[in-house]
Amino acid sequence: MISPKMVEALNGQINKEMYSAYLYMSMSSAASIMGFKGTATWFMVQYHEEMVHAMKQFEYVNRQGAAVALTELAAPPVKFASLLDMFQKTLVHEQFVTKSINDLMDLAIAERDHATQAFLAWYVTEQVEEEQNDTEIIQTLTMIGDNKSALFLYDKELGARMVTVPTDFSKGVEAAMGTAA
Domains of the chain by range and CATH? Predict the structure, then answer.
């Protein structure tokens, strides 16, 4: 069983992950309206990944015998100046999530909550990947600049990203991922 303080912190993180999904859904729409269908796909895949992150935490809190407390989500931005602007904002957001995950890990360490530390280790590693992906995309978009032909080709490349996580959580995300609960 985890402490009430840890439950409260995890519930806050679940809501942050849900907001992340909400943000990437908004970015998918914005990219689509801008004519970047490949980038819209990339962000919709990111939406699904964020939902898995939230659902894993949801299930962990419940498995620990605690209730999940969902809160209202803020409206995400809907307009962006460019793809570069969109991905720069994505990186800033992922850095915010990284800090939040690190704060959770610090709390788990302080509380000597070894189960939650083990659970959160996956998220620590995941955030390194998230920030690296965003940084590489920003580097490429910076090199491309305003070259429409290059933007067109890179958009197609981003659109090749596929959903590799479960999208049906009706039986639980751990079951959908084929891992032990």
Answer: 4-162 (1.20.1260.10)
